[in-house]
Automatic annotation (TrEMBL):
Gene Ontology molecular functions: methylmalonate-semialdehyde dehydrogenase (acylating, NAD) activity
InterPro entries hit by this protein: Ald_DH/histidinol_DH, Ald_DH_N, Aldehyde_DH_dom, MeMal-semiAld_DH
Protein name: Methylmalonate-semialdehyde dehydrogenase
Domain Aldehyde dehydrogenase per the UniProt entry, residue ranges: 13-62
Keyword Oxidoreductase: yes
Keywords from the UniProt entry: Oxidoreductase
Keyword match Ion transport: no
Superkingdom of the source species: Bacteria
One GO BP annotation of this record: L-valine catabolic process
Length: 90
């Protein structure tokens, strides 16, 4: 069964924790993945990395309305082609 990794500092990393939690499909009750319950150190590192990342990406100006609409349609096309629908409204 696939184990979900932590996403810290722009990279997927394995947790050092032995504790895991199972993820279930709510429609079927089937176990579909597992996720490690991160250590205190991993959690603190993730928070620190997020604060550092925020300092950079918060300087990026927001998208203009017409760009947001284009982005929404691009995402919609990609999700339709892949058979996945993540959002329902722009």
């Amino acid at each position: 069964m696939e184990q979900i990794k932590n996403f810290i500092g722009g990279q997927l990393v394995d947790s050092q924790s032995d504790r895991i939690s199972l993820i279930f499909n709510p429609a079927t009750g089937q176990e579909i993945r597992k996720v490690a319950l991160s250590t205190v150190h991993e959690t603190e590192h993730a928070i620190e990395s997020a604060h550092l990342a925020f300092q950079e990406w918060s300087k990026i100006p927001p998208l203009k309305p017409d760009c947001r609409i284009c982005l929404y349609h691009c995402i919609s096309v990609r999700e339709t082609l892949s058979g996945i629908r993540w959002c329902k409204e722009p």
